[in-house]
Protein backbone atom coordinates (compact mmCIF):
# COMPACT_ATOMS: atom_id res chain seq x y z
CA UNK A 1 0.00 0.00 0.00
CA UNK A 2 1.23 3.50 -0.74
CA UNK A 3 2.27 5.81 2.04
CA UNK A 4 0.36 7.13 4.97
CA UNK A 5 1.11 10.74 5.87
CA UNK A 6 0.22 10.37 9.52
CA UNK A 7 -0.93 7.58 11.81
CA UNK A 8 -2.95 8.46 14.90
CA UNK A 9 -3.37 6.19 17.93
CA UNK A 10 -6.46 7.12 19.90
CA UNK A 11 -6.56 6.84 23.70
CA UNK A 12 -9.35 6.62 26.26
CA UNK A 13 -12.41 8.48 24.97
CA UNK A 14 -11.13 8.71 21.38
CA UNK A 15 -12.30 5.64 19.47
CA UNK A 16 -12.64 7.15 15.99
CA UNK A 17 -11.11 10.03 14.12
CA UNK A 18 -13.55 12.84 13.44
CA UNK A 19 -13.62 14.08 9.83
CA UNK A 20 -11.84 11.02 8.38
CA UNK A 21 -13.35 10.46 4.91
CA UNK A 22 -13.41 7.58 2.38
CA UNK A 23 -12.42 5.19 5.14
CA UNK A 24 -10.94 1.77 4.32
CA UNK A 25 -10.68 -0.83 7.07
CA UNK A 26 -7.57 -2.98 7.45
CA UNK A 27 -7.45 -6.02 9.68
CA UNK A 28 -3.72 -6.58 10.05
CA UNK A 29 -1.79 -9.46 11.61
CA UNK A 30 1.81 -8.70 12.58
CA UNK A 31 4.82 -10.75 13.65
CA UNK A 32 3.96 -9.64 17.20
CA UNK A 33 0.35 -10.76 16.95
CA UNK A 34 -2.87 -8.83 16.46
CA UNK A 35 -3.26 -5.10 17.15
CA UNK A 36 -6.05 -3.78 19.40
CA UNK A 37 -8.47 -3.61 16.46
CA UNK A 38 -8.81 -2.67 12.81
CA UNK A 39 -6.82 0.19 11.35
CA UNK A 40 -9.03 2.76 9.63
CA UNK A 41 -7.32 4.58 6.77
CA UNK A 42 -8.89 7.57 5.09
CA UNK A 43 -8.43 11.14 3.93
CA UNK A 44 -8.19 14.10 6.25
CA UNK A 45 -7.35 17.56 4.93
CA UNK A 46 -6.19 16.03 1.63
CA UNK A 47 -3.77 13.62 3.34
CA UNK A 48 -3.86 9.89 3.98
CA UNK A 49 -4.32 9.30 7.67
CA UNK A 50 -4.50 6.00 9.58
CA UNK A 51 -6.30 5.60 12.88
CA UNK A 52 -6.09 2.85 15.49
CA UNK A 53 -7.90 2.81 18.85
CA UNK A 54 -5.27 1.76 21.41
CA UNK A 55 -7.76 0.11 23.76
CA UNK A 56 -9.94 -1.28 20.95
CA UNK A 57 -12.94 0.54 19.55
CA UNK A 58 -15.08 -0.71 22.46
CA UNK A 59 -12.39 0.07 25.07
CA UNK A 60 -11.89 -3.60 25.93
CA UNK A 61 -8.09 -3.70 26.31
CA UNK A 62 -6.63 -2.29 29.56
CA UNK A 63 -3.36 -0.34 29.46
CA UNK A 64 -1.14 -3.13 30.82
CA UNK A 65 -2.49 -5.65 28.27
CA UNK A 66 -2.28 -3.53 25.10
CA UNK A 67 -0.11 -5.25 22.49
CA UNK A 68 1.92 -2.09 21.89
CA UNK A 69 4.32 -3.87 19.54
CA UNK A 70 1.54 -5.17 17.32
CA UNK A 71 -0.21 -1.79 17.22
CA UNK A 72 2.89 0.05 16.04
CA UNK A 73 3.97 -2.74 13.70
CA UNK A 74 0.51 -2.76 12.07
CA UNK A 75 0.73 0.98 11.36
CA UNK A 76 4.24 0.53 9.98
CA UNK A 77 3.15 -2.38 7.78
CA UNK A 78 0.49 -0.12 6.27
CA UNK A 79 3.19 2.41 5.37
CA UNK A 80 3.17 4.83 8.30
CA UNK A 81 6.42 6.50 9.33
CA UNK A 82 4.95 9.19 11.63
CA UNK A 83 2.78 8.31 14.61
CA UNK A 84 0.89 10.84 16.68
CA UNK A 85 -0.18 9.23 19.95
CA UNK A 86 -3.21 10.64 21.73
CA UNK A 87 -2.90 9.98 25.45
CA UNK A 88 -5.61 10.75 27.97
CA UNK A 89 -3.87 11.92 31.14
CA UNK A 90 -4.25 13.43 34.56
CA UNK A 91 -2.69 16.84 35.21
CA UNK A 92 -0.18 17.27 38.03
CA UNK A 93 1.25 20.79 37.73
CA UNK A 94 -0.49 24.15 37.32
CA UNK A 95 -0.39 24.48 33.53
CA UNK A 96 -2.05 21.10 32.97
CA UNK A 97 -5.64 21.42 34.20
CA UNK A 98 -8.61 19.48 32.80
CA UNK A 99 -9.30 19.93 29.04
CA UNK A 100 -5.81 21.24 28.33
CA UNK A 101 -4.03 19.83 25.27
CA UNK A 102 -0.28 19.37 25.67
CA UNK A 103 2.69 18.13 23.70
CA UNK A 104 5.18 16.81 26.27
CA UNK A 105 8.90 16.64 25.53
CA UNK A 106 10.04 14.23 28.25
CA UNK A 107 8.82 11.14 30.05
CA UNK A 108 9.58 8.89 33.00
CA UNK A 109 8.59 5.23 32.82
CA UNK A 110 7.08 3.75 36.01
CA UNK A 111 5.44 0.79 34.28
CA UNK A 112 6.49 -2.78 34.98
CA UNK A 113 5.95 -6.26 33.57
CA UNK A 114 5.05 -5.06 30.08
CA UNK A 115 6.80 -6.23 26.93
CA UNK A 116 8.82 -3.07 26.43
CA UNK A 117 11.25 -3.94 23.65
CA UNK A 118 11.41 -5.68 20.29
CA UNK A 119 14.30 -7.72 21.79
CA UNK A 120 12.08 -10.36 23.29
CA UNK A 121 10.33 -13.50 22.12
CA UNK A 122 10.21 -15.48 18.89
CA UNK A 123 10.07 -12.62 16.38
CA UNK A 124 13.33 -11.30 17.82
CA UNK A 125 15.03 -14.72 17.93
CA UNK A 126 13.80 -15.57 14.41
CA UNK A 127 15.20 -12.31 13.06
CA UNK A 128 18.70 -12.99 14.39
CA UNK A 129 18.49 -11.59 17.92
CA UNK A 130 20.32 -8.31 17.47
CA UNK A 131 20.19 -6.36 20.76
CA UNK A 132 18.96 -2.79 20.27
CA UNK A 133 20.19 0.03 22.50
CA UNK A 134 18.39 2.96 20.92
CA UNK A 135 19.13 6.52 22.01
CA UNK A 136 16.15 7.79 24.03
CA UNK A 137 17.48 10.99 25.60
CA UNK A 138 14.84 12.89 23.65
CA UNK A 139 11.97 10.38 23.70
CA UNK A 140 9.69 12.14 21.22
CA UNK A 141 10.52 13.00 17.61
CA UNK A 142 11.67 16.61 17.45
CA UNK A 143 10.39 17.16 13.92
CA UNK A 144 6.95 15.66 14.57
CA UNK A 145 6.65 17.71 17.78
CA UNK A 146 7.55 20.85 15.83
CA UNK A 147 4.87 19.93 13.26
CA UNK A 148 2.30 19.53 16.05
CA UNK A 149 3.24 22.86 17.65
CA UNK A 150 3.13 24.66 14.28
CA UNK A 151 -0.21 23.03 13.46
CA UNK A 152 -1.67 24.22 16.76
CA UNK A 153 -0.59 27.78 16.03
CA UNK A 154 -1.97 27.59 12.47
CA UNK A 155 -5.29 26.14 13.65
CA UNK A 156 -5.59 28.56 16.58
CA UNK A 157 -5.73 25.69 19.08
CA UNK A 158 -4.31 26.27 22.57
CA UNK A 159 -1.57 23.75 23.26
CA UNK A 160 0.88 23.65 26.15
CA UNK A 161 4.39 23.11 24.79
CA UNK A 162 6.55 20.67 26.70
CA UNK A 163 6.17 18.90 30.01
CA UNK A 164 7.16 15.57 31.47
CA UNK A 165 4.82 12.58 31.11
CA UNK A 166 4.80 9.94 33.86
CA UNK A 167 3.78 6.50 32.57
CA UNK A 168 2.17 4.49 35.38
CA UNK A 169 1.04 0.89 35.38
CA UNK A 170 -2.69 1.26 36.01
CA UNK A 171 -5.38 0.34 35.46
CA UNK A 172 -6.16 1.85 38.85
CA UNK A 173 -5.56 5.56 39.30
CA UNK A 174 -2.78 6.74 41.61
CA UNK A 175 -2.76 7.51 45.33
CA UNK A 176 -2.19 11.11 46.42
CA UNK A 177 1.22 10.08 47.76
CA UNK A 178 2.14 8.60 44.38
CA UNK A 179 1.15 11.83 42.61
CA UNK A 180 3.13 13.89 45.19
CA UNK A 181 6.13 11.71 44.38
CA UNK A 182 5.65 12.14 40.62
CA UNK A 183 5.53 15.92 41.16
CA UNK A 184 8.80 15.76 43.12
CA UNK A 185 10.28 13.71 40.28
CA UNK A 186 9.49 16.57 37.89
CA UNK A 187 6.43 15.08 36.16
CA UNK A 188 3.61 17.32 34.87
CA UNK A 189 1.23 14.73 33.44
CA UNK A 190 0.34 11.16 34.31
CA UNK A 191 -1.08 8.44 32.09
CA UNK A 192 -0.95 4.68 31.67
CA UNK A 193 -0.07 4.19 28.02
CA UNK A 194 2.86 6.45 27.11
CA UNK A 195 5.26 3.59 27.70
CA UNK A 196 6.37 1.21 26.34
CA UNK A 197 4.77 2.74 23.23
CA UNK A 198 7.27 5.58 22.80
CA UNK A 199 10.29 3.32 23.33
CA UNK A 200 9.01 0.70 20.90
CA UNK A 201 8.35 3.38 18.29
CA UNK A 202 11.99 4.42 18.59
CA UNK A 203 13.15 0.80 18.20
CA UNK A 204 10.97 0.46 15.10
CA UNK A 205 12.42 3.66 13.61
CA UNK A 206 9.08 5.49 13.66
CA UNK A 207 8.76 9.22 14.27
CA UNK A 208 6.54 9.45 17.33
CA UNK A 209 5.05 12.30 19.36
CA UNK A 210 2.47 12.51 22.13
CA UNK A 211 -0.57 14.74 22.12
CA UNK A 212 -1.88 14.58 25.67
CA UNK A 213 -5.49 15.36 26.53
CA UNK A 214 -5.86 16.28 30.20
CA UNK A 215 -9.03 14.65 31.51
CA UNK A 216 -8.76 15.40 35.26
CA UNK A 217 -6.53 16.68 37.99
CA UNK A 218 -4.43 13.74 39.15
CA UNK A 219 -5.14 12.56 42.72
CA UNK A 220 -4.72 15.45 45.15
CA UNK A 221 -3.29 17.78 42.48
CA UNK A 222 -6.33 20.01 41.90
CA UNK A 223 -7.99 22.74 43.96
CA UNK A 224 -10.14 20.17 45.81
CA UNK A 225 -7.69 17.67 47.33
CA UNK A 226 -10.56 15.32 48.27
CA UNK A 227 -11.96 15.16 44.73
CA UNK A 228 -12.93 11.66 43.54
CA UNK A 229 -12.06 11.02 39.88
CA UNK A 230 -14.82 9.27 37.94
CA UNK A 231 -14.67 7.71 34.48
CA UNK A 232 -17.57 9.95 33.50
CA UNK A 233 -15.54 13.08 34.35
CA UNK A 234 -12.66 11.71 32.29
CA UNK A 235 -14.89 10.99 29.27
CA UNK A 236 -16.74 14.33 29.56
CA UNK A 237 -13.50 16.30 29.61
CA UNK A 238 -12.00 14.36 26.69
CA UNK A 239 -15.21 14.96 24.71
CA UNK A 240 -15.02 18.66 25.54
CA UNK A 241 -11.42 18.84 24.32
CA UNK A 242 -12.21 16.94 21.13
CA UNK A 243 -13.12 19.85 18.86
CA UNK A 244 -9.65 21.31 19.39
CA UNK A 245 -8.20 17.85 18.92
CA UNK A 246 -9.83 17.36 15.51
CA UNK A 247 -8.74 20.82 14.32
CA UNK A 248 -5.21 20.15 15.47
CA UNK A 249 -4.89 16.71 13.86
CA UNK A 250 -6.31 18.08 10.61
CA UNK A 251 -3.64 20.79 10.65
CA UNK A 252 -0.80 18.34 11.42
N1 LIG B 1 -3.81 8.95 36.17
C1 LIG B 1 -3.37 8.06 35.24
N2 LIG B 1 -3.90 7.95 34.04
C2 LIG B 1 -4.92 8.77 33.72
C3 LIG B 1 -5.43 9.72 34.63
C4 LIG B 1 -4.83 9.81 35.91
O1 LIG B 1 -5.23 10.63 36.77
N3 LIG B 1 -6.46 10.35 34.01
C5 LIG B 1 -6.55 9.82 32.76
N4 LIG B 1 -5.63 8.86 32.59
Compact summary:
With 252 residues, the chain is an alpha/beta fold.
Question: What features would you describe in this structure?
Answer:
By secondary structure, this protein is an alpha/beta fold. It is built from 6 helices and 11 strands. Strands 1, 2, 3, 4, 5, 6, 7, 8, 9, 10 and 11 form an 11-stranded mixed beta sheet that branches. Strand 9 (164-167), helix 4 and strand 10 form a beta-alpha-beta unit. The chain is globular and about 50 Å long. The model has no long low-confidence stretch (mean pLDDT 95). Bound molecules: hypoxanthine. Hypoxanthine binds next to strand 5, strand 10 and strand 11.
Labels describing this entry:
single chain, 252 residues, alpha/beta, 11-stranded mixed sheet, globular, binds hypoxanthine
